[in-house]
Amino acid sequence: FTPEQRDIAEYLIGSLDDDGLLRKNMESIMDELAIYRGIYTTEEELNKILEIIQDFDPAGIGARSLQECLLLQIQRKADSPLKQIELDIIGKCCDEFTRKNKERIIQKLGITEEQYNEAVSDLTKLNPRPGSSLGEAMGKNMQQIIPDFIVETYEDGTITLSLNNRNVPELRLSRQFTELLDEHTRNKDNQSKASKDALMFLKQKVDAAQGFINAVKQRQHTLLTTMQAIIDIQRLFFLEGDESLLKPMILKDVAERAGLDISTYHG
User: Fold this and answer.
1) Continuous H helices in the chain
2) What is the C-alpha to C-alpha distance for residues 50 and 8, in angstroms, rounded to an integer?
3) Would you kindly state where each structural domain of the chain is located, as residue ranges?
């Protein structure tokens, strides 16, 4: 790997889900690399690096679908007639396999029932979630993730969105602090130089604190606006929970839906 290819590989690995699969499309990853890492690459280059990652253990890691995950595991087996049947079942009859349509698979591949049963018995030993074994191995080293948002769905199709208050405690200026500032301001004409310097220092701190609070509130507004845009785009997914309903989505789509400039998400 060149230093840039290593950065790309690390980003791809970081994009794997808990199952160890890469469910993001390459166009989105290309956009993210350009925005967050300043790396401009091609889909061909991403695929080449992903193929190297797919040679890592455990077998099946880095697959872009369940079908590819199973195929990667089968391909590591020693060559045999059974291996070829398994490749054909997953490669050519994956839908039938997931629906347990034995008769259709036997007919389509021209194999015997005995061959089918032997292959399926072996296929059920494959791991559809290779990344889960990594999580178990890491154990206590796994980092707890606290979500920024709470999204709730209801049977009538309503979706509600709120910020997780554990992440955003309410910020406000101390009442005692502001009252002290007001008192000093009212009496500033009769104050000594030291008192006036203290008043100036106090005012600077209050202004800085208020500026920080305003910035946090603006960030919260941007987060909510952005998440609402994502919910609007992926409404069916949030209602049904079916990953096949996820629509391709890049930062530009979210920014346009949220009515924000894409530069809002930089840095």
Assistant:
1) 3-14, 26-32, 43-53, 66-75, 81-92, 94-98, 102-109, 113-123, 130-138, 175-186, 193-233, 235-240, 251-258
2) 9
3) 3-53, 66-130, 149-265
Neighbours of 15 (CB within 10 A): 15
Q: How far is CA 65 from the centre of its chain?
A: 16
Using DSSP, state whether 165 is helix, strand or coil: coil
Locate 168 and state its tokens: 């955003």
Tens digits of residue pLDDT in 143-200: 556 678 889 888 899 999 988 765 556 677 777 777 777 777 777 667 777 777 777 8
Instruction: List pLDDT tens digits, range 91-129.
Output: 999 989 888 899 999 999 999 999 999 999 999 999 999
Q: How far is CA 206 from CA 176, 178, 185, 257, in A?
A: 12, 8, 13, 36
